[in-house]
Fold:
Amino acid sequence: VQLVESGGGLVQPGGSLRLSCTASGFTFGSYSMSWARQAPGKGLEWVSGIWSDGSDTYYADSVKGRFTISRDNAKNTLYLQMNSLKSEDTAVYYCNAPNSQVPWGQGTQVTVSS
Structure:
């Protein structure tokens, strides 16, 4: 059972990144999924969630209108498209399966800086 995040990096303010989270070892399509982030020196912040079939999505106010969560259950992959990035989006981003025994991944670093 594993979640592996990828796609992070260094981007200038106003830029875009797409994060991916590849799942293995469990029935990915049966689980709601979320993205969360942890900025330097701060606590964990929930960012976005999506139902198991992708029919509904949710966003924190801080990212609404800029980030889009999606999933491809055939590929066991969760995505987070991040546009209009700001310096305050700098954080380690994690995908997770809420209310499950699925362990969190190692995260992927996103740094927004000029």
Remarks:
- The CA atoms of residues 59 and 65 lie 9 Å apart.
- The chain has a mean pLDDT of 97.
